[in-house]
Structures are given as C-alpha cells and as structure tokens.
Design brief:
- GO terms for molecular function: phosphatidylinositol binding; small GTPase binding; ubiquitin binding.
- One of its GO terms (cellular component) is trans-Golgi network.
- This is VHS domain-containing protein.
- The chain has about 100 residues and is mainly alpha-helical.
- The chain has a domain at about 30-98: Serine Threonine Protein Phosphatase 5, Tetratricopeptide repeat.
- Helix content is about 55%, strand content about 0%.
- The chain contains 4 helices and no strands.
- The radius of gyration is 15 Å and the shape is globular.
- About 10% of the residues are buried.
- Residues about 1-20 have low confidence and may be disordered.
C-alpha cells in the first residue's frame, strides 16, 4: 500500500472545517438526513461484527478501522457510545468463553 492513501483527500473533498469529515450535502437514500448516517453506520457495523461468519466479521472490523481513520467527530462519537461499545463487548465475551 501507499503511504499517501490516507492522505489522498484533495482540499476540495474535505469538510469545510478542514478535518476531512465528509457528509453528503443532500439526504441519503431512504430519507435519512446526513447527521443520521453515523448512527446508522455504527448500527450496521455492530451487526456485521457479530456475524458468525468470520470473514464477514473481519471485513466489518476493517471497515470500522477505515472509518475511524477517515471519518470525523460525529462518527467517533457514535463509536464511543455505550450502545456500540456494548455490542463489541458481546462479541469479545462470546469468543473468549467458547
């Protein structure tokens, strides 16, 4: 991989705040508002991380890692909430006690 891959955002693609956070300007499919996307994304990731299929769970963890590196404070805030962290604890406790 290239070192520049994480730094490849052009200035025109960055959030006006300069933090690299990107949100669509228009409502997303399904009538969601841009502010609702981090909550939906973390809910879907938590579900996939709990998949009994190891490949699917690992892919979800890779997506989570990518989002943590590239998304902004709204996504980070959702990941830090008890709701999401509790779902991760379920996965770890299931795998440790088998």
């Amino acid at each position: 991989g290239s070192e520049a891959s994480g730094e490849s955002l052009q200035a025109s693609e960055r959030h006006p705040g300069g933090e690299g956070e990107r949100e669509p300007a228009e409502p997303a499919a399904g009538g969601l508002q841009p502010g609702e996307l981090p909550q939906l994304a973390t809910r879907l990731l938590a579900h996939k991380i709990q998949s009994p299929q190891e490949w699917e769970a690992m892919q979800a963890l890779l997506v989570l890692e990518t989002c943590m590196k590239n998304c902004g404070n709204k996504f980070h805030g959702e990941v830090g909430k008890f709701r999401f962290l509790n779902e991760l604890i379920k996965v770890v406790s299931q795998r440790c006690w088998r």
